[in-house]
Every structure is written in structure tokens, then in C-alpha cells.
């Protein structure tokens, strides 16, 4: 598998958690359906623009929820001109219908949690990028690949160590991880964008999402150097403990699974490792002479 310079692996991960989308709809009682419509149409417009800018591109779109993720789009047929209007229209319809079906499927699940599982889709994207790099003799930095996450839910702290492993792997592969947080801040994705050299931006109004995606996240890596884009001024790198789900300044870290704890524990609650500590010498007190 050979890749010419300028080829791109583009992954778009859309957070479709029904709990958080429902909360956003409650803030718009007059037009609640417009929330989902704006999110879907903005995603379709961004994907269509990405494919129109390059004649050879692999595009992957994932819909994420609390229990699973669904792949909506997996590139186009081999040999077809990706910039052709017929292919772009077909791709737009597939993504639009796929996101709608995924949201209905997620909403009809028996149990729906407010925590969105990011690790499976992110790990799957990184593995696909690694496979593309292994299939060519080019260096990781020369294979252009990007991951964009449209996030509407709050951070999940249960997968902190796994997420940090994915972020480090993406950095090693030269993959940019961009995040557009909609309505909520994400400290974890803030760290991911800073580690991989991507862009993190919070959007308060969904009506401006299309403009943000086109002007901030659409430009290529080379064009970003020529534009005045939002920069990450300060990043909070305090880890989240596994016991109380709080930020810790000086944590205890398991040497086996890298789980973070705010206080010392003799047994790791994640991997059940028992720590061997050196015994303290007990000095007996001298008896006083009568």
C-alpha cells in the first residue's frame, strides 16, 4: 500500500449520547429537534468539504454512545473519483441517515448512561492509522492523519489510563487529535489536543458549529501554520483518581496498570495487585533503670 504526499486519513467521531442531547433539547423548548438537526448537518457539511478538498481520501465516521459505537461511513469505493458530485451526494445521504439511525438505536437501549465511551472508537481509529503506516515505508509524520471528536457529553474518568495510552500512541504516530466541545468543557480532550498538536475549542451555540468546523478544523496542517487559530494557553494536567473521580495534584500510581489514586492503598482496586512494602524496623524502647 503506497500513499502519495497529501493523502489523508480522516476520522470523525460524533458523540450522540441521548442523555446529553436531551439536556440540550430542554434548553430549546421551542425547537428541540433543531439541536440534533444542527449537529447532523454540520457533520455532513464537514465530511463533504473534507472529501471535496482532496481527490484521494479515506473518511471514517463513528457515532458514539454510552454502551457502544457504530461506524457510519468507511471511505468510498476504490477507484471512484471521491470529488465527483454523485459520490459526494451519496456519501452525504449515507452519513445523514446513518447518524439518525444510530441516535434512534442509542435512545431505545434498555440502559443509557450519561458517560460516553470514547476508548473503543479512538483505539480503533489509531489502529487503522497504524495499519496504514505499516503498509508503507514512509515515516509516521509523513502520513497525514487526523481525528476530530464532536463532543457533547462530560468527561468519563473511568477510562483515564486507557485514554492517556491512546493519546500517547496517536502522538507517536504523528496523528492530530482535534476536539470541538459543544456546551461542555473537556479536560481530557484538552490534554489530548495539546499532546498531539491538535486544536481544542468549545462551542456554546450549535448554530455556529458549521462555521467553526469550516474555518478552524477543516484547514490542513500546512494551512494551520498560516492562519490565526485558537491556541491552547494553559492545560490542566492533573490526573483523575479512580477512587473518588477527582483531580489530584500528587497522586499514587499503580506500577502495573497505571491507575491513579488520591491516597495510598495496599491493593490496587483495578488490577488487584498487592504491593510489597519494606518492613519498618521497630525500635524497642529502653527500659528506664529504677
From TrEMBL:
InterPro entries: TFIIH_Tfb4/GTF2H3, vWFA_dom_sf
Entry keyword set: DNA damage, DNA repair, Metal-binding, Nucleus, Transcription, Transcription regulation, Zinc, Zinc-finger
Superkingdom of origin organism: Eukaryota
GO molecular function: zinc ion binding
Metal-binding listed as a keyword: yes
Entry's localization field: Nucleus
Cellular component, GO annotation: transcription factor TFIIH core complex; transcription factor TFIIH holo complex
The protein, known as: General transcription factor IIH subunit 3
BP GO annotations: nucleotide-excision repair; regulation of DNA-templated transcription
Homology family: Belongs to the TFB4 family.
Family matches, as Pfam families: Tfb4
Function comment: Component of the general transcription and DNA repair factor IIH (TFIIH) core complex, which is involved in general and transcription-coupled nucleotide excision repair (NER) of damaged DNA and, when complexed to CAK, in RNA transcription by RNA polymerase II. In NER, TFIIH acts by opening DNA around the lesion to allow the excision of the damaged oligonucleotide and its replacement by a new DNA fragment. In transcription, TFIIH has an essential role in transcription initiation.
Keyword Nucleus: yes
Subunit-structure text: Part of a TFIID-containing RNA polymerase II pre-initiation complex that is composed of TBP and at least GTF2A1, GTF2A2, GTF2E1, GTF2E2, GTF2F1, GTF2H2, GTF2H3, GTF2H4, GTF2H5, GTF2B, TCEA1, ERCC2, ERCC3, TAF1, TAF2, TAF3, TAF4, TAF5, TAF6, TAF7, TAF8, TAF9, TAF10, TAF11, TAF12 and TAF13. Component of the 7-subunit TFIIH core complex composed of XPB/ERCC3, XPD/ERCC2, GTF2H1, GTF2H2, GTF2H3, GTF2H4 and GTF2H5, which is active in NER.
